[in-house]
Design goal:
alpha+beta, 4 helices, 8 strands, four-stranded mixed beta sheet, four-stranded antiparallel beta sheet
Length: 147
């Protein structure tokens, strides 16, 4: 049973930029004719859209007894206290308070985050920083699984 799931999608403005990259590719190929121009438009927009989609398709889930964040799968038993970070505190933890050993699922376009301590003595990672649009729900889900 899944108690929490979130997909961190890219902002709409990034999709507009992907379309504009296609237009730029078309304009570069305009001197070569109509067919290369259309190929540049379609190819450039498609490649940019694939890049935006792959970057924006990361998911955070609490499934069973695990926290799955991107490619990382962390057992809830190895997690300590989870802390909701408001926009100012989240900015501090991704800049001057950040630890280079930390696991960071960072998306700069998501202003809020959750910081979860990792208590496993075998793991040198001190905490996980997870960008999330619903930090209170994520902390509640982790607390419910731990209880």
């Amino acid at each position: 049973m899944q108690s929490y799931e979130e997909r961190l999608t890219a902002p709409r403005s990034w999709w507009v930029i992907a379309g504009l990259i296609g237009v730029a590719c078309a304009l570069m190929l305009l001197p070569l004719g109509t067919l290369p121009m259309l190929g540049g438009l379609i190819g450039g927009a498609a490649l940019a859209a694939v890049a935006v989609s792959s970057y924006g398709s990361v998911r955070i889930r609490v499934v069973g007894d695990s926290l799955i964040a991107g490619d990382a799968r962390i057992p809830v038993a190895a997690l300590g206290e989870a802390q909701v970070l408001d926009p100012e505190e989240a900015l501090a933890w991704r800049t001057h308070k950040a630890d280079t050993r930390a696991f960071m699922l960072l998306r700069s376009y998501v202003r809020t985050a959750v910081r979860v301590e990792i208590t496993d003595p075998e793991d040198p990672t001190p905490y996980a920083y997870l960008s999330t649009r619903e930090p209170e729900r994520l902390v509640a889900a982790l607390t419910a699984v731990r209880a």
